[in-house]
Specification:
Blueprint: H1 17-30, H2 33-44, H3 51-60, H4 70-86, H5 111-120, H6 126-137, H7 141-157, H8 164-189, H9 197-201
Helix pairs in contact: 1-3, 1-4, 1-8, 2-3, 2-4, 4-7, 4-8, 5-6, 5-8
């Protein structure tokens, strides 16, 4: 069993690339009706039957080797299911964008950025957005995994984007570097107001 650790900013030129690569795997899995349905059902079942997720993710590219056990793989499964529920096109009715057409995420586009955007566009009151973000930031890994689907559902219901590679990176870092992630969320939430509209809308 490999003991390779999740990538950190100091070890990779682009810390998001491994997570972008995994999301390409997820999009491949969701490009078939069966794959998309399995991942959507996985979230509805609270990932209690993960073998069905593996049956579709493994042929599409698998889970990175630096997730050496099932506990470490859980964030990958969770984000895959969340994407399938909220952002994966229905392969029966819509064309699936090729991976090259998906704009890469930026490091600062974390949950703090999503909640700040929700406040800026009027989807949430700023005080409520700050409280929601603070609540998530105070949770341990298990509680965060349990409460995240509801939080993401609320954001996506208001058409607030969630950058899946950034979210996945944050979840994999949470057990050891939660304080770093919390600070990054806080910084993104209180981003200077002169950031361009293009940056905040993508």
């Amino acid at each position: 069993m490999t003991t390779e650790s999740p990538p950190t900013p100091s070890l990779r030129k682009n810390p998001l690339e491994p997570f972008e690569r995994f999301m390409r795997t997820v999009r491949t899995a969701c490009a078939t009706p069966g794959g998309r349905a399995a991942l959507r059902n996985g979230l509805a079942e609270e990932l209690t039957s993960p073998w069905q997720l593996y049956m579709h993710l493994l042929p599409a590219g698998g889970i990175p080797a630096y997730a050496p056990n099932r506990e470490a793989e859980f964030p990958y499964l969770l984000v895959a299911c969340l994407y399938a529920v909220h952002d994966a096109p229905n392969p029966r009715t819509a064309k699936t964008n090729p991976p090259s057409a998906v704009k890469p995420a930026e490091m600062w586009q974390n949950l703090g950025w999503s909640y700040a955007l929700a406040a800026r566009v009027g989807a949430m009151r700023r005080e409520n957005a700050a409280d929601a973000l603070s609540h998530l930031a105070e949770l341990g890994s298990d509680d965060l995994h349990r409460e995240l689907p509801g939080a993401i559902s609320l954001l996506r219901s208001q058409q607030i984007p969630v950058k899946w590679p950034v979210l996945l990176r944050d979840l994999t870092r949470w057990p050891k570097w939660a304080d770093d992630v919390r600070i990054e969320w806080a910084r993104a939430f209180h981003v200077p107001t002169n950031r361009t509209a293009e940056e905040t809308a993508q």
